[in-house]
Amino acid sequence: MHISIIVPTLDEAREIVATLAPLQPLRDTGHEIIVVDGGSVDATLALATPLADRAFVAPKGRTLQMNAGAAVATNDVLIFLHADSRLPGAGIATLLRMLPRSGRRWGRFDIAIDGRPGILKLVAAMMNTRSRLTGIATGDQAIFVERALFAAVGGFPRQPLMEDIELSRRLKRAAGRPLCLRERVVTSGRRWERRGPWRTIVAMWRWRLAYWRGADPDKLAAEYDAALRARPVVLQIFAKNPIPGQVKTRLAGAIGTAEAAALYTRFVELTLATAAAARAAGIVDRVELWCTPDIEAPAFAMWGNRFGVALKLQSGDDLGARMRSAMGTALDRGSSAILIGTDCPALDVPYIAQAVAALGDHDAVVGPVEDGGYVLVGLARPVDAFSDIPWSTPDTMAATRAKLIAQGATWLELPLLWDVDGPADLLRWEALDAAVRRSDIRLTAR
After folding, report:
1. What tens digit of pLDDT does each residue of 223-234 get?
2. Number of domains the chain contains
3. Does this model's pTM top 0.85?
4. Is residue 31 part of a domain?
5. 155, 136, 123, 195: which is closest to 58 by C-alpha?
6. Cα of 287 vs its chain's centroid, Å
7. Burial category of 131 from C-beta neighbours within 10 Å (exposed 0-12, middle 13-18, buried 19 and up)
8. Structural domain span for residue 183
9. What is the pLDDT, as a whole number, of residue 362?
10. Can you tell me whether residue 183 is helix, strand or coil?
11. CA–CA distance, 323 with 375 (Å, rounded to integer)
């Protein structure tokens, strides 16, 4: 039994040699490599030709290219390998041993995702587990199938997205469940890193659910293509110079001005650490600290250097004008903007990820708090949501909703949070902080 490895490509000059070079010893033992290019404008085809038994151009579209490769394949089993993926070293030997022994006629490998965000390990584990439970394989897992069975089910369906899911369905109906090999194909994490792992996870689950519900694959493909071209996201943080008597004034009467300023400083640094983590995870592309009343204060310089954030000066006659001005700088650059304050210790990286995902489908996103305001607001396009708003009142959120409705904007409200304004809020925060510290101690002890 011999294998035909089919690799669809499009502008993959950076990846193709690394994909094909490890496969060269297979060619000496009767296996073949087929590269089907969709009309690359870079050097993909020139680089691939000496490393393949056949390399040719076919009509653009992954399904069309893979079917074209299968049509010229001469071996018993086909493997469909993405151009940014690497087959496991012992993968072919394991496949040749296990496929006839198992009685299965098709299958896939496990997957590992090569990328910096640590969550990609969890993503890969979930993909592998889901595939075992459902019997559905993804293209990233290097689907393999007997050539005769592939032809019998009509090959990949002529659809631009979810073609791997549909092929898996057809193969399951025709030949039963897949052979799931634990050897791991290593695929590039660039898709997750480009848009951010959380955004990508949310989007893929949404598209997958829509497909299961019968959505048109052409429409889903259009959404997918638009998402790959998604606008960058700028996370903006509003902060004051932590001068005693000028920050956390409602708390200062209970705990003193110096203690209130120290608490404010801690909240700013917690917020900056969360923002930096969101940037490191690829959830946001840039973090800015918007300063008032000036930008020269030593605290701002220290925070900028420590957390690697850009310093900006707030400008405007009231809070609404300052918000509009800050977010406008990002929107004018073609980015989406998310603006947060510094007094909500419950605001974390997953919450920011939800906000970023919401801007893929909505004009705005808001993170409301219990006192009637909000700790997060995001815009995907210019929307006048901040004029004539009664700030720092129980009516702030309601007035903002009314403005969004008047502007004809679509928006999503995230789960309700709470912020620290008065003594009761401080007690709540201290209890939460103590619980977190105890948890950290237990984890360290283990």
Report:
1. 665 555 556 889
2. 2
3. no
4. yes
5. 155
6. 17
7. buried
8. 3-228
9. 83
10. strand
11. 12
